[in-house]
């Protein structure tokens, strides 16, 4: 019998198999959560690129091209209003010529790819169709507006789900190892060694086995099992917490980017609209001032009549300029072919972003909680490893009294774990 190779007992083979499953599940969960973290980071980068492109295109239309187009539209409205009376007096003639020349020369001095460079965006007597212009500008960057950060987040969630399943499998293997260590096979399942059989190794304990310990050492073996299991179990919880932190951080960053982009986009559009309405208000104030000037300057009756006609026409022009400003500064809709994220950003007022801010704050809180949990579980794992080392030293030295130190470590590790999940 001594010449034949030895073999491990079933209990030892089961320990080896469970250890391999636990280690494999831990490594697999780590890799899967690493993949999910990469997907979350890609989603955040795509969100930043997409929102930056949106804000830049809105700025190009409403801050760069829009004011010049508003000036031309206002000049055209003024020229159209003054045209019927341009031959009734020198003032009307000069004002008409100034407005007509402004409306004529500014578009012709613009580049062909500019809003004013062609007549494609003219809309009746209401100026220029800025939403249509914005849609065409956005179509120049299909790669940016085709980014799908939400799809990347879903991809990360799928990896996280697989990682959670792997961690659950590892946890189940740990629980099976604990149960197996405390159970003996029924006698009818045990094989009686024979003189001609292979020698069976039974005394090796990779995982402490309270079931095979003597009655006087069973409690200490059970404690040793607990000290051994904690370093196997806690890293799985740490992996889950780190994965949750990565997702919450990505969502919080995306929410912050969307909030800032929405506020800036809305500000660019409303700034353009406000400036257009100011132009209309200035024209209205000019008409009123001209009417008052008739009574203050002591001009001839014919000139006074001409001034009053001019004032009435300028009042009508002011109303038209107001209509132009409202049309050009209107909120885009889906029919304008503008990207729907852009439509949402341009239509939401900053004071109505309370729900978005609350969601962003919630994700920040979730990230902080997950980070705190991961840190506490890391500390609990470190303490559990030290406790396991002290337990091995106590058993190797045959000093039962030394077990008080690892007992304190196990209690501290358990307490840290409990705090992590509260």
What are the main properties of this structure?
single chain, 422 residues, mainly alpha, two-stranded parallel sheet, rod-shaped
Short description:
The chain has 422 residues and is mainly α.
The main sheet orders its strands as 1-2
Q: Which blocks of ≥5 consecutive residues have pLDDT under 50? A: none
Largest sheet: 2 strands, parallel
Bin the helical content: over 70%
Q: Tell me the total number of β-strands.
A: 2
Overall structural class, as computed from helix and strand content, comes to mainly alpha
Descriptive notes:
The chain is mainly α and 422 residues long. The protein has one domain (7-181, 218-420). 74% of the residues lie in helices and 1% in strands. It has a two-stranded parallel ribbon with strand order 1-2. Helix 1 runs antiparallel to helix 5 and helix 6 crosses helix 8. The model has no long low-confidence stretch (mean pLDDT 85).
Helices and strands in order:
Elements lengths: L6 E2 L1 H73 L7 H19 L21 H9 L3 H4 L3 H33 L18 E2 L16 H79 L4 H28 L11 H8 L6 H44 L6 H17 L2
Parallel strand pairs: 1-2
Helix pairs in contact: 1-2, 1-3, 1-5, 1-6, 1-7, 5-6, 6-7, 6-8, 6-9, 6-10, 9-10
